[in-house]
Design a protein that fits this description.
Blueprint (H helix, E strand, L loop, with lengths): L1 H16 L8 H8 L10 H13 L3 H13 L4 H17 L3 H14 L6 H14 L3 H14 L3 H18 L2 H12 L4 H18 L2 H10 L6 H14 L3 H14 L6 H17 L2 E7 L6 H22 L4 E7 L4 H15 L3 E3 L4 H14 L3 E3 L14 E3 L4 H14 L5 E7 L2 H16 L3 E8 L7 H12 L4 E6 L5 E6 L4 E4 L3 H13 L6 E3 L6 H7 L7 E4 L8 H14 L5 H18 L5 H10 L3 E3 L2 E5 L5 E2 L3 E6 L2 E4 L2
Parallel strand pairs: 1-2, 1-3, 3-4, 4-5, 6-7, 6-10, 10-11
Antiparallel strand pairs: 8-9, 12-16, 13-14, 14-15, 16-17
Helix pairs in contact: 1-5, 2-3, 3-4, 3-5, 4-5, 5-6, 6-7, 7-8, 7-9, 8-9, 9-10, 10-11, 10-12, 12-13, 13-14, 14-15, 16-25, 17-18, 19-20, 22-23, 25-26
Length: about 650
């Protein structure tokens, strides 16, 4: 039934697009097109018309016989294109899928700009779906969208794309395709499409898919419907922290929405429940915009710390209120001050960024509330005020640990640096250079590259030249064939490569090509599976630092990873780990008797037994948490902790 419906639709379009007198009755064909020289007494056009009539009358086999005769005559291109298309349609009706697909592929290969090209792609895509080749079908359908201007054909392509995405479980893409269809649809079809979109969102989408859809349509339909669905899911399972977060986001983006009144009532209910708790913490993190993922990971870490405190210490009286830092910078301080006044939190965890911390810095001292940032890269957090702390593993701490290990344990003294010309690359190169010199090392050469460079011959030749002027050596070597060549032996011990995985992999391979066979040192940008994928064995043995290593054998880390996976169904990141530490040490001060922000601050400053993932910790004089830096080595296809 589906096949006949498809052929009927395509055949109708076919007839509309092809310029000819229209189908004739058999007697009319003979009368008007008699040609004594023709074996059938008919012209090519008349035979083509006869094949159309036979196909329309469901006499498929006879239609195929007629088309075969036409093919033997080698008709002109205009007719040949139509023959291919009708032949493929006939094969499709007879369920000869392979033959139909081959015929359409031949049509598109011989006549790529044929008037029938788009209809052919539509039919070929349907055949690929039947043959269980959805990716090839999607590629063809997108080709149709890129070229076709006919609204009917575009709608047909969009409808099929949406159906394929839905079948594959790519529901966000299915909804996005339906949104495109809305622009081409009439009033009745638009109502049907909205029903389809609603059904996808309310009955089929998981929370991650809803989050992706909201990110794609943050302040317009169907982002509103997806946010409402998230609120319902979180409320139903009693996750009021996330429900409150989503309600605030909804009211900010859709203040005049019909659901706004219901959302406000729910928010008032959640706020009342939070205020009932004698101890309240605040999380000031990005829950929308480009940093949303990092904010969500940080919030997950905080929520897990509260859950652990409840289970291990019996602390059932902790409330958590959240604030989205993705709001306009000008209103962030005012909005946060309002939240502090209303909820009176004992401590604030956040924000993530240094610029945000500077914007709200005065609030900590003004309200006598400790603010602990889990990721701002300020080396001296004290500059923001006497109530500011940090659990972030900032770059200077990582580079310090890396250089110390290289010099004291590996006995390296001379180093080269090849870094990207990005803010991150320049900062890491500067820190490494300063720390190496401070610890008694020597920098032989520093080279840089742009993001679009893939050939580093110039930089590496300059590096070799600089080394040869100092400690590098050239020596003659005779190979078995009697040929003598110059061999370069580096005079430095290691090279520091603080780049992204692709550039590091390219650099590592080219270093070996230029006989620069020295150990490699890296930064935390190495901590990604992409490095193992791109670099193969070229970075084997390379060492880099990181603030969190999920595969660490440390018992505290393993327990954290296990519980995080069980609760959030994903692997924790450094953002989750550092936010977890921030929340846990605050909760421990409350457990130890702190009842005000000032009392929490006092404990944070004087205690040497604050709980952290990798053991007891202490805040340094600069109010950075003293913690372990993990040194990781590339070993085969995995990362291994070496300290």
């Amino acid at each position: 039934m589906l096949a006949r419906h498809l052929i009927a639709k395509l055949f109708l379009v076919f007839l509309l697009l092809i310029s000819n007198p229209g189908p004739l009755l058999p007697s009319e064909i003979w009368a008007q097109s008699h040609d004594p020289a023709s074996p059938f007494g008919l012209s090519d056009q008349a035979l083509l018309d006869q094949a159309k009539i036979l196909l329309d009358a469901h006499q498929v086999d006879k239609a195929l016989e007629t088309l075969d005769v036409l093919l033997e005559r080698e008709p002109d291109p205009a007719i040949l294109q139509q023959v291919y298309f009708l032949q493929a349609a006939a094969f499709r009706v007879n369920n000869h899928t392979h033959e139909a697909a081959s015929t359409l592929e031949q049509l598109l290969e011989e006549f790529p700009v044929s008037p029938l090209a788009q209809e052919s792609r539509l039919l070929l895509a349907e055949l690929y779906v039947t043959s269980d080749k959805p990716e090839r079908a999607l590629s063809l359908l997108h080709d149709v969208l890129n070229v076709a201007s006919n609204p009917l054909i575009r709608r047909e392509a969009l409808q099929r794309i949406r159906t394929l995405y839905r079948q594959q479980g790519q529901l966000v893409r299915a909804v996005a395709t339906a949104i495109e269809e809305l622009a081409l649809a009439g009033p009745e079809d638009r109502a049907e499409l909205r029903t389809i979109i609603q059904d996808l969102i309310l009955t089929e989408m998981t929370e991650p898919a809803l989050e992706q859809l909201i990110e794609r349509y943050p302040a317009r339909y169907p982002g509103d419907l997806a946010t409402i669905r998230l609120i319902e899911l979180h409320t139903a399972r009693g996750d009021e922290v996330l429900a409150e977060r989503d309600i605030r986001a909804f009211l900010q983006r859709f203040p005049n929405h019909p659901y706004a009144q219901t959302a406000m009532a729910l928010l008032q209910s959640f706020m009342s429940k939070i205020k009932v708790h004698p101890y309240v913490l605040a999380a000031v993190l990005p829950f929308s915009g480009p940093l949303k993922a990092f904010g969500t990971e940080s919030l997950n870490g905080i929520r897990l710390a509260i859950a652990d405190a409840r289970e291990q210490w019996g602390m059932t009286s902790i409330g958590l209120v959240v604030k989205d830092t993705a709001s306009p910078v000008g209103s962030l301080r005012y909005d946060l001050a309002q939240m502090i006044t209303e909820f009176a939190p004992l401590a604030v965890i956040g924000p993530l960024l240094t610029r945000e911390a500077r914007t709200i810095a005065v609030l900590a001292d003004q309200y006598h509330i400790p603010f602990i940032t889990p990721s701002a890269t300020l080396a001296d957090i004290r500059s923001l005020g006497s109530y500011w702390f940090s659990t972030a593993v900032i770059p200077p701490l990582q580079i310090d640990a890396l250089v110390h290990h290289a010099i004291t344990q590996l006995h390296y003294r001379r180093f080269c640096i090849v870094h990207p010309q990005t803010g991150y690359g320049q900062e890491m190169a500067r820190l490494f250079q300063e720390e190496a010199v401070r610890q008694g090392g020597e920098i032989v050469a520093v080279e840089s590259y742009t993001d679009d460079e893939t050939d580093f011959a110039t930089q590496l030749q300059r590096l070799k030249a600089a080394d040869l002027r100092r400690s590098g050596q050239l020596s003659r070597e005779t190979v078995k064939t009697g040929y003598t060549r110059w061999v370069y032996t580096p005079g430095f011990d290691a090279v520091f490569l603080p780049g992204d995985p692709v550039h590091v992999a390219l650099l590592a391979a080219q270093l070996a090509f230029y006989d620069i066979n020295v150990p490699l040192l890296g930064s935390d940008s190495w901590y990604t599976s992409e490095l193992l994928h791109w670099a193969n064995d070229s970075v084997e043995g390379g060492i880099f630092p990181t603030g969190f290593f999920g595969e660490s054998p440390d018992p505290g880390v393993q327990r954290f990873v296990h519980r995080y996976r069980a609760r959030f169904h994903s692997d924790p990141t450094v953002f989750a780990a550092q936010a977890y530490d921030a929340a846990l040490l605050i909760l421990d001060t409350i457990r130890q008797g702190a009842r005000t922000g000032s009392e929490i601050r006092e404990q944070l400053l004087r205690r040497y037994d604050l709980p952290a993932l990798n053991g007891l910790a202490v805040f340094r004089s600069n109010r950075l948490l003293e913690r372990k830096i993990y040194l990781i080595q590339v070993s085969g296809d995995r990362f291994v902790q070496i300290n």
